[in-house]
Write a sequence for this structure.
């Protein structure tokens, strides 16, 4: 079953036209501040809340507050990934802590507006700050925090720096946030019973950061993909990103996501075809172009100059395109 067309249309119509502002000009024509120029959508869509946008119901009992497809700023409060929750018969699962305790608290208020059931578990999609830091709020509420073991290890090794970086841009909005602790970890798979509804925490393999995981909800035909899958926003390729491994993981992810509603790490709920175009197609394109450069004895500078204009309508294009190409070159040199 494809993503329900009427539901997707309603979600898209709820967004202002500026949310889809596009640019197709070259990298050298980058504006001074793409966010301020409106190229990545509104700076805030829910000024009454710390959240960038308020949760939408994607499937019965499955909600997601869609984050900005922008770099983190004070205006978006660092809510630049999707913060989701799943309601069962006995309790709630929260997916992603958010960048701060204030974001997590705001999401909790939205949960309480929809159910009186307690939050039982909170899980981060990976070890990045905007997935992890807000878990400190859930620690303080007595909620069980579960993370993939590699994601937890990477985060805790860099936690002080990650917290300090968030405090710099979020200023007063960072108050109340501390380094969270992880109650339980898992390696590849963990099932959670929410009462009449089982959710599965699944690691498909390497993706864009260590410990990336997805949440599969078979009875709701939903997969909360996390940063396994992207659209609207350009996928970031980090120094530790294994793009060859990501493509191998993608094959497994695609089997699980086929015919399901896909909630990506960034961007509105959609279907597999859309995130495939926004993830696999892009990675394969970069690897193909970098491979040609290496075969012809080209340099890192040649990689930076790869023509990525076909992706220039993606948010964070200006920040990431050349950097991504350079990192793929540096990785493929040693494959």
């Amino acid at each position: 079953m494809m993503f329900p067309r009427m539901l997707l249309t309603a979600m898209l119509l709820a967004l202002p036209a500026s949310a889809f502002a596009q640019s197709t000009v070259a990298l050298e024509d980058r504006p001074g501040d793409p966010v301020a120029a409106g190229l990545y959508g509104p700076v805030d869509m829910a000024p009454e809340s710390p959240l960038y946008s308020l949760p939408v119901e994607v499937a019965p009992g499955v909600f997601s507050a869609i984050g900005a497809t922008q770099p983190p700023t004070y205006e978006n409060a660092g809510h630049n990934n999707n913060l989701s929750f799943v309601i069962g018969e006995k309790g709630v699962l929260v997916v992603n802590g958010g960048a701060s305790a204030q974001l997590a608290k705001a999401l909790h208020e939205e949960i309480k507006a929809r159910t009186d059931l307690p939050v039982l578990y909170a899980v981060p999609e990976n070890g990045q700050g905007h997935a992890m830091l807000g878990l400190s709020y859930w620690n303080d509420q007595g909620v069980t925090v579960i993370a993939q073991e590699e994601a937890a290890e990477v985060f805790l090794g860099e936690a002080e720096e990650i917290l300090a970086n968030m405090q710099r841009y979020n200023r007063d909005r960072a108050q109340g946030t501390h380094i969270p602790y992880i109650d339980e970890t898992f390696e590849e798979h963990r099932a959670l019973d929410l009462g009449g509804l089982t959710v599965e925490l699944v690691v498909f393999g390497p993706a864009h950061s260590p410990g990336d995981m997805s949440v599969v909800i078979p009875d709701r035909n939903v997969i909360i993909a996390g940063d396994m899958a992207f659209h609207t926003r350009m996928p970031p390729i980090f120094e530790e990103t294994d793009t060859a491994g990501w493509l191998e993981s993608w094959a497994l992810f695609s089997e699980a996501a086929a015919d399901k509603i896909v909630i990506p790490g960034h961007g509105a709920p959609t279907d597999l075809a859309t995130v495939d175009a926004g993830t696999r197609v892009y990675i394969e394109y970069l690897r193909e172009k970098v491979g040609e450069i290496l075969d012809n004895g080209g340099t890192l500078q040649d990689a930076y100059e790869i023509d990525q204009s076909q992706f220039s309508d993606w948010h964070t294009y200006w920040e990431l395109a050349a950097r991504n190409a350079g990192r793929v070159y540096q990785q493929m040199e040693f494959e």
Q: What stands out?
A: The chain has one domain: 5-332. The radius of gyration is 19 Å.
